[in-house]
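re: ur question from the group chat, yeah i did fold both. here u go
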Amino acid sequence: MDKQKISEIVSSQRTFFETGRTKDVAFRVEQLKALRKVIVENEKYIFDALKQDLDKPAFEAYGGDVAIVLNQIDYTLRHLRSWIKPQRVKTPLALFPASSRLYAEPYGVALIIGPWNFPVQLLLAPLVGAVAAGNCAVLKPSPLASHTSNLLEVLVGENFDPRYVTVVEGGAETAQALLEETFDYIFFTGGTATGRLIMAAAAKRLTPVTLELGGKNPCIVHSDAPLGYAARRIIWGKFFNAGQSCVAVDYLLVHKSIKRELLERMKQYIDAFYGRDPSESPDYARIINDAHFDRLSRLLDRGRILVGGKTDRQTRYIAPTIILDVAAGDAIMQDEIFGPLLPVIEYDDLSEAVSFVNARPKPLALYFFSRDTECRERVLRRTSSGGGCINDTVVHETATCLPFGGVGMSGIGKYHGKASFDTFSHKKSFLKGSSLIDFTLRYPPYNGKLKLFRKIF
């Protein structure tokens, strides 16, 4: 899309926002219900598009893309009217008899840029927050998931006023043209490198941003871990969507005393989930494109493959793979893998594992398996991450009441549930003074007033 057309879209949305219509509570509720209806009625087409883009099983398409958005909508509809109400807060005694309130107001026109791995969820879940807060929104889906991008453009175009919500398709040039426009808020989900570019562009206009990035998410399995649960949940959390998830387990830190048994159980669960030949499984997705396939294939050069390792470029298939004898300096340990490769590193003492994690940028998620309460608290206190799970993987992202987001290199800001509403709302602080009483203490002349002034404050 050319720059002129993009400028016209942003201008028309700003004009529509200035009418005040998006701030009406009934309008917000109506639009959220409309979004829900669009998703439910077109579920089959969404599944088909995700199948074409990622060979995503219907179960994973529903669980990873559709269900999360529907849950966000339902939760928001239940609570929106209470969120919108002005929030009364305490006022200092020195300002008596004034009162203080916080007013949640929309920013205006928001730009939401989504990724390709969960192209429905990660574009529409932020939209729920933007709509709930009363904003207009321009949606930019990833061109890599082209079938889903095309479908979303059609569905949004047919069901929403483009002055209110619209989809702009295109590649890097389109994204650049969008970033040259003046938005009131930018919400981006994607890689850290692109996140830097988004933030740099936003900084030129001091536009607030949320950056949902990623990172190398560690999974620590301690000596007292429930190995059956750990193996099953690690395999599922790692190879869901063929590992193409920002919250997937990126590498495994396992205590040497249980390493052999854990790995054996993990091998068994790969067979149980995907069969002896996962390439024939209807429940295993494919890599998004050739470039990502080639990038992942190059990571197979180092270490010892315990299971998997098979690839087929024609179908973009990479088997669920566990890699041993990995060194901290190997390429697979440098950047987020974002694919079905799981490097395993053993440790002797929990402090060693914690130090290993802390020596690297803060991850989006951290997973820890242990029955010991003291060990759990130790890991929680001594590590920093966007979030995570104890004795589970990935599922914290689905908990509507848990704000989701990164820290440091893994992201800025949070969303989901009320956090989505808060993210797309400016909290305006106002104090209401009284005209009934006017204490003269604060007014000049100040002579003789300082002692009393100190006591009051």
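okk and heres the other one u asked abt
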Amino acid sequence: TGSRTGTATGSGRLTLAQREEIAIMHAVGASNAEIARAIGVHRSTIGRELARGSTVIEDRRPRYRASMAQTRAEWRAAKGGRSQQTKLSQHPDLVAEVQARLEAEHSPEEIAGRLRKDFPDRPEMWVSHETIYKELYVQGRGTLRRDLHQRLRTGRALRKTRRSTGERRGRIAGMVNIAERPAEVEDRAVPGDWEGDLITGASNKSAIGTLVERSSGFVMLLHLPEGHGADAVAEAMIEAMSRLPEVLRRTLTWDQGVEMTNHVQIAAALDLDIYFCDPHSPWQRGTNENTNGLLRQYFPKSSDLSIYAPDYLDHVARKLNNRPRKRHDWDTPAEVLDRLLSHPPKHGVADAG
């Protein structure tokens, strides 16, 4: 087609290179028609792509992000295939029960709990409340009727980021409380369970995301140069954690900060179970809290955290990951994690290879 960035895939989807070209040209003010000519597609394709792939950051005008647009396109492609069947799609009787109870304005958690009581001898009629939320919010064209989201307390089809002050309790729909986290996470014997949080800068106007693996204390830092709203945090987390082997993506525990409003999308993209701490209970993320204290040596509260480049964040993470720890008999987090991956407990996950 004469495109500078190559043609779309055989299925007609845009490539990541084309999305990057769209992002650059859109940022400098090129029209949809000009962008379309440059990459060799119809201008209506550009209009749809900009609408689908744009996010709003800190109440500014929508900005098209190539990486997030690519991730969303991959989600849509994966969820649209019938090869990835959910439990609901395989059990019509269960679908009928869930839909009837949603119409009666029961919450997904109430439905999940009651189904076990009403059908104690039929496990095929059991479903988790998180699965119900995923069908309604993430899949879009899933098994449940799309209009049933209106029966939920929020009445929204998509989860939205909200910025307000005061109590943080109850602002995130579909949260799974830390009390439901598997007991095996507590003993730290198996790698892949993470704790996360934000450290903020002066006046809470900037932030860096912190992820700490519970067994080893291994640290990853999320670069958030343009704000720490839900979309920015989701994009950074998906980009960072998707580089991990699947064996290292078991669970994530976070507090009830509004930056995790998009937790269902994050969980779906990473195949990760996410749990939320009780309000005002930082000790429930003790590993992360201790690590955040160490990080303040490099990122003072009084500074603007948006100025630190990704390379510097990686540098700081490496320093902490190669710092001897008393709880590991002075081994480093990097050494402990390598050992856990090379010789996993027999009752734990399979070797990452």
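fwiw on the second one: The chain is about 40% helix and 10% strand. Strands lie at 54-55, 63-64, 193-200, 207-213, 219-222, 251-254, 273-276. idk if thats what u expected
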